[in-house]
Amino acid sequence: MFEVVDHILEFAAARGAREVEVYAERGVSRRIKVYRGEVEQLVAAQRRGVGVRVFRDGAVGYASTSDLGGAGLESVVERAVANAAAADVDPFRDLPAVTAPPAAVHPYDPRLADATDERRIELALATEAAALAADPRVRTVEDTVYADGDGEVFIANSAGVRGNYRSGQCYVYAYVLAEQDGKVETGVSYGVGRAPEDLDGPACGAEAAARACRLLGARPCPSMKATVVLDPFVAAAFFAVLASALTAEAVQKGRSLFAGREGRRVADPSLTLVDDGAHPDGLDSAPFDGEGTPCQRTPLVEGGVLQGFLHDTYTARKAGVASTGNAQRAGYHSPPSVRPSNLIVEGVAVARDDLVAGIDHGVLVTDAVGVHSGANPVSGEFSVGISGVLIEGGRMTTPVREVTLAGDIIAMLRGVRAVGDDARWVPTGSVLTPSVLIEGLSVGGS
Questions:
Q1: pTM of the model
Q2: What's the whole-number mean pLDDT along residues 112-137?
Q3: CB 365 within 8 A of CB 389
Q4: CB atoms within 10 A of CB 320
Q5: How sure is the predictor about 281, in pLDDT bands with cuts at 50, 70 and 90?
Q6: What confidence score (pLDDT) does residue 374 get?
Q7: What is the model's pLDDT at position 273?
Q8: Which domain holds residue 21?
Q9: Residues facing residue 297 across a β-bridge
Q10: Which of 190, 212, 234 is the last residue of a domain?
Q11: 406 and 304 within one domain
Q12: Residue pair 340/324 in contact by the 8 Å Cβ criterion
């Protein structure tokens, strides 16, 4: 692939383009779905292609192609040059330069390449079987999926940036339906890792079944101001929305409730929120980001105080700071944009059972619908539908549903009092979070 990259740089130079970046990738992904003990779907897809950015006097043109023949590579350069000529000029847009060595992280496990389709199918079947066997009220496992991805990234530009790395991830997923007295509830679970050996399919299936069965008999609870415990799946969804408001791009465009709050208290002093693109176990870890800038650990909230924002090269130059290595790409077909990498939530940790035991009246939230659409990253207000279990006298009692959870993000962050000891990676983006106990949220029910 570096031969392809170098050919593009040479042709671009001959074409008169002096500031050029080439991002290339190749990889394979697999997805296996089983249903009722049979393989329903097995898909393997290969991808490879290049994306080219041409910088010219503050204007940027982008083009991409999967045609890696000589004519295809020359065509993608021509299109990028033409797009740069038509683009608006912005003095802060410039070619990323070498800043430091890549981060010492290796997001690939060679065991992934050794995995067979038989092993992948076995994992998926074991996940489904465990869910069906977990409880007689489990009616069916609607979705049981094993999926993985194995890819390589290459980047080089005319300012001297040059590097490559390989990464891999895999996961199992179960979506369970349980039924009692004609009422159906659902439950989901994930397991993630770098190789199939990291996954426990039976545990994933059993957890999904338990989450579905725990909600059987659910009904609305009375409206109240309450202490809530967000389980890791729900907490991950909320923090993923919150993190999008912590990008410098959102701040600079006036689309973030955190604009102007840097250095001010925005959360309870016990809460720590970090973006760590070099975490050894992170699902989105890499030696460098989509521009070749080294990935790093970036504190966002420490001691309840907002420390700063996530940057790529463009937003960093605009703010007069250094990039945090958060230029992320969806693939070779799109230019980089500022996004979180691995979001990590930390706090005063106590045992999950102790979280519940200390609550006189509240709700354990196990599912939230519409977090991304129901939470406004500009105003901070949110209102989402939830399901879970009522907490009374320090014990989990009645399952609840058709209930709303409402408030604003800053009040929610300031209401955090503790987190559980059950931190896990959740593939809502890539979030490492435990259960989170929050005081003073509005629960709307009957």
A1: 0.95
A2: 97
A3: no
A4: 7
A5: very high
A6: 77
A7: 97
A8: 2-212
A9: 276
A10: 212
A11: yes
A12: no
